[in-house]
């Protein structure tokens, strides 16, 4: 691999342990203060944070499994474990948001009123907003550094938690001022819909990886430009790129002078591999197939330079 896997492992470990510790403290604070202040909304926010604790534990287990080397049953390694865990996270988020929407809508239709939170409950909500914002920022930074879809998805989850805590705080404050539970329920419904939207976005991103797809033609342009920079390598085509836990697996056909020896053609292919790795980060493996110039096969798969465009 062309990236420092040791640095990635350290970033992943730091991100997961930070999320685990931070969410545990916030969950315990909100659950305790929710019970003490008799605030159902704050208690629900604490339960939501306890789900994040479970997610962090899941991430630690997943990354340990994903780091296992390839074997006879898994010749591509175990990196897709992270992708599957990210998909699972999207389902957890979706059903959490849906449950919040349905329960709040039922409360709104029933005409129930929310008990006004005490000042200590409001303080706990404010601490939650600050703590979750800091955790979301750190997860996003470390997730990008590690190239981890799961950690970046968890950062989006935590950003959603910031919105939840803000909504809880605003809804309960208005309910306390008006003596009605309707504002709290309305805020909860809006927050639930926002969580559902985030979950769908995460699922669509990870589904693209599970199907070995790509929504960005930029990396393809990079490998085609890399081929042009290698003397003797022509007509890059049938390119296929897929992600495995943040790393690129690349298949590519090139054409060379048919009069070259096998060793010479192999040298050009090695030059293409080296140039791609120099231009593109996080490359797991590259397979370059060499064909005689002008005699390339026409299989109907892969991406050509013409299809990428400018």
- Which fold name fills CATH's third level, the topology of the largest domain? Alpha-lytic protease prodomain-like
Name given to the CATH homologous superfamily of the largest domain: Cation efflux protein transmembrane domain
Shape: elongated
| Spatial strand sequence of the major β-sheet | 1-2-3
Secondary-structure map:
Elements lengths: L4 H32 L3 H27 L13 H31 L8 H28 L2 H30 L3 H29 L7 H11 L5 E11 L2 E10 L5 H18 L3 E10 L12 H4 L2
Parallel strand pairs: 2-3
Antiparallel strand pairs: 1-2
Helix pairs in contact: 1-2, 1-4, 2-3, 2-5, 3-5, 3-6, 4-5, 5-6, 7-8
Structure, explained:
The chain has 310 residues and is mostly helical. It has two domains: 5-210, Cation efflux protein transmembrane domain (Alpha-lytic protease prodomain-like), CATH 1.20.1510; 218-308, 2-Layer Sandwich (Alpha-Beta Plaits), CATH 3.30.70.1350. Helix content is 68%, strand content 10%. The chain has nine helices and three strands, in the order H-H-H-H-H-H-H-E-E-H-E-H. A three-stranded mixed β-sheet has the order 1-2-3, with helices on one face. Strand 2, helix 8 (262-279) and strand 3 (283-292) form a beta-alpha-beta unit. Helix 2 packs antiparallel against helix 3 and helix 7 (218-228) packs across helix 8. The protein is elongated and about 85 Å long. The mean pLDDT is 75.
């Amino acid at each position: 691999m062309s990236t420092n896997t040791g640095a990635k492992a350290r970033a992943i470990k730091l991100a997961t342990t930070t999320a685990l510790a931070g969410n545990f403290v916030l969950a315990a604070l909100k659950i305790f203060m929710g019970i003490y202040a008799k605030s159902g909304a704050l208690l629900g926010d604490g339960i939501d944070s306890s789900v994040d604790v479970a997610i962090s534990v899941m991430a630690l287990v997943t990354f340990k499994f994903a780091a296992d080397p390839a074997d006879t049953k898994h010749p591509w390694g175990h990196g897709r474990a992270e992708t599957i865990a990210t998909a699972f996270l999207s389902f957890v988020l979706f059903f959490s948001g849906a449950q919040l929407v349905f329960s709040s809508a039922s409360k709104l239709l029933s005409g129930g009123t929310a008990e006004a939170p005490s000042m200590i409950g409001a303080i706990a909500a404010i601490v939650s907003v600050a703590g979750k914002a800091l955790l979301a920022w750190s997860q996003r930074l470390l997730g990008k550094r590690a190239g981890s879809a799961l950690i970046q998805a968890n950062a989006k989850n935590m950003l959603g938690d910031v919105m939840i805590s803000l909504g809880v705080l605003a809804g309960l404050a208005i309910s306390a001022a008006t003596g009605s539970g309707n504002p709290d329920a309305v805020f909860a419904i809006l927050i639930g819909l926002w969580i559902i939207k985030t979950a769908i976005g995460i699922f669509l991103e990870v589904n693209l990886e599970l199907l070995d797809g790509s929504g960005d033609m930029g990396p393809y342009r990079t490998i085609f430009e890399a081929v042009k920079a290698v003397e003797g390598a022509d007509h890059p085509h049938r390119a296929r790129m897929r992600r495995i836990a943040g790393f690129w697996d690349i298949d590519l056909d090139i054409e060379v002078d048919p009069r070259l020896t096998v060793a010479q053609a192999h040298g050009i292919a090695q030059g293409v591999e080296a140039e791609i790795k120099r231009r593109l980060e996080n490359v797991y493996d590259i397979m370059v197939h060499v064909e005689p110039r002008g005699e390339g096969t026409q299989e109907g798969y892969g991406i050509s330079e013409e299809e990428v465009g400018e």
